[in-house]
Specification:
This protein has helices at residues 27-32, 38-47, 52-64, 130-135, 191-194, 210-213, 217-222, 254-272, 278-291, 304-311, 316-326, 350-354, 376-388, 407-417, 477-480, and strands spanning 2-22, 68-69, 72-73, 82-94, 103-112, 139-140, 143-144, 146-171, 174-179, 182-185, 199-200, 205-208, 224-234, 238-251, 338-343, 365-369, 393-398, 419-423, 433-437, 441-445, 463-469. By secondary structure, the protein is α+β, with helices and mostly antiparallel strands. It folds into five domains: 2-21 and 82-166, no CATH class; 24-73; 190-252, no CATH class; 255-326; 338-480, 2-Layer Sandwich (Endonuclease, Chain A), CATH 3.30.870.30. The two termini are 72 Å apart.
């Protein structure tokens, strides 16, 4: 996860005469090491053959710096300031909010030494400078570098005002700010503040409404999202251009969680692309809850009817699920050996696609038991299928033809294909539709031949399913029915 908050800040150059205290490494630190008193220091300097006048100058300097007090050398391990007076240019960044800083030093440049009370070409300042001086945001690389002790007669000149960008970046679980390609550590910003009180501490995720991501399949599946906003306000830090990358997300409410969960379940169902029993569907439900732990805090109860209604009767997946109740009225617990799904909304290539789906060698015999092969379009479709299957011996058990005006055309197809038609009363034909190849491979299907588009006619169904079963698992009436 990465967050980048960007905004423009000013770079000011302030020219002034005054006194500064620089916190630099002093040569006196090495000199005074292991010494405790003025006498120790004098003795050491005499051993170095330093003249008395020079020794006195060192003593005076150390007393001015308050390193030497009452003949005792103070603790100098932390360093000490060395004041100087002159003309300087102080460059600093100016941010329009207090956080992460109001003023921050970029650089201090010595222009030239000057005598006291002389301010060459410096006019009275025309705006308040005391604020940024007193805040002393004058550190470089985390160490205090200098302090402006005094500005002579409060005179100064602002010039060369430029703009640059500051980036507040959260990455690897820590915050830094970046100015002119230089990175500096900073205090942490509470993620709940950044995400405007929508951060889930438990899952370290942004709480989102389902409606916001319902069309973003990648976000729904990965539980991560990236987005940008040009005018994003962060309390106390101001307004930013913001970039959120790979932000973990979680449902905001139980209703959002349910919609999100169902969306993922629908993807799983579509990936299966087959008949799914109630038990299988419930297992898909439970598996999804295990794979996506962010759903566990919500109460999501399995509800078959609710899932079914998410698709609507115009969807093939509705009928794949509904098949658990309607398709197998004799034994709903049966599991087919295999399934073939033909999607009629596609232009079926019967020469390449249709037959290969059954994974069979060319059959020598095909029996179709279907009481609804009753019109010319059905027989046209059957003729195409016979051709694809290599012209096996074909027998169909069905009703009398309902399409009387096309009866002669139907009879020509029957004669041309050598189809044996056994006509029975509707009540004498089993309810389900069967295709039997070589009296061995038995497929049960939910549709007649309406799924095949003939002569660019509109198809009446969107798909059909062929489910292969063992003989022992099928309706006994199928095998006791007279097939003559």
């Amino acid at each position: 996860m990465k967050i980048t908050l960007s905004k423009e800040i000013k770079v000011n150059n302030f020219e002034f005469v005054g006194e500064l205290s620089f916190f630099e490494t002093s040569p006196y630190i090495a000199l005074l090491k292991d010494l405790e008193t003025e006498e120790d220091l004098v003795e050491l300097l005499e051993e170095k053959n330093m003249p008395l006048s020079a020794i006195n100058n060192v003593i005076q300097k150390l007393e001015e710096l308050q390193v030497l007090k009452n003949g005792i050398i103070q603790n100098i391990e932390g360093g000490f300031s060395e004041k100087e007076y002159g003309k300087y240019t102080f460059s600093y960044f100016e941010n329009n909010t207090m956080k992460p800083f109001k003023y921050l030093a970029e650089n201090i440049r010595r222009e030239k030494p000057v005598s006291r009370n002389i301010a060459d070409n410096i006019s009275q300042v025309d705006r308040n400078i005391q604020d940024f001086i007193e805040r002393k945001h004058n550190k470089f690389n985390g160490k205090e570098a200098f302090e402006i002790v005094k500005i002579e007669a409060r005179k100064g000149l602002f010039n060369n005002e430029d703009n640059t960008n500051i980036d507040l970046v959260y990455e690897d679980e820590k915050w830094n700010y970046i100015i002119n390609a230089k990175k500096f550590s900073m205090e942490n910003i509470d993620l709940n503040v950044v995400f405007q009180k929508k951060w889930d501490e438990e899952h370290n995720s942004l709480k989102v409404e389902y409606a916001w991501i319902e069309n973003n399949i990648e976000a729904l599946q990965s539980f991560e999202i990236s987005f940008q906003n040009n005018f994003y306000k962060v309390h106390e830090y101001g307004e930013f251009e913001v970039s959120f990358e790979d932000i973990p997300i979680t449902p905001k409410t139980e209703n959002d969680a349910l919609k999100w969960f169902i969306a993922l379940l629908k993807i799983d169902i579509k990936n299966e692309n087959r008949y799914i029993s109630k038990d299988e569907l419930k297992q898909l439900w439970l598996n999804l809850k295990d794979k996506k732990p962010k759903f566990k805090k919500f109460i999501l109860e399995f509800d078959f009817e609710m899932i079914l209604n998410q698709f609507g009767k115009g969807s093939k997946y509705y009928w794949l699920l509904e098949a658990g109740i309607d398709l197998y009225p004799f034994d709903n617990s049966l599991a087919p050996k295999s399934r073939v799904i033909i999607e009629a909304q596609k232009d079926i290539d019967l020469d390449k696609d249709f037959f290969q789906k059954f994974h069979l060698e060319y059959p020598s015999e095909l029996i179709i038991i279907d009481r609804w092969i009753v019109n010319l379009e059905h027989y046209k479709g059957l003729e195409k299928i016979i051709d694809v299957f290599g012209h096996p011996k074909v027998k169909i058990i069905t009703q009398k033809v309902k399409d009387k005006k096309n009866n002669q055309l139907i009879e020509k197809i029957i004669e041309r294909c050598g189809i044996e038609v056994i006509k029975k009363e509707k009540k004498d034909i089993v309810h389900q539709r069967y295709w039997i190849f070589d009296n061995e491979h038995i497929y049960q299907t939910s549709e007649s031949l309406d799924f095949i588009k003939i002569d660019n006619e509109t198809i009446s169904v969107s798909y059909t399913i062929f489910s292969q079963f063992e003989k022992k698992d099928l309706d006994p009436k199928l095998f006791t029915m007279e097939m003559k």
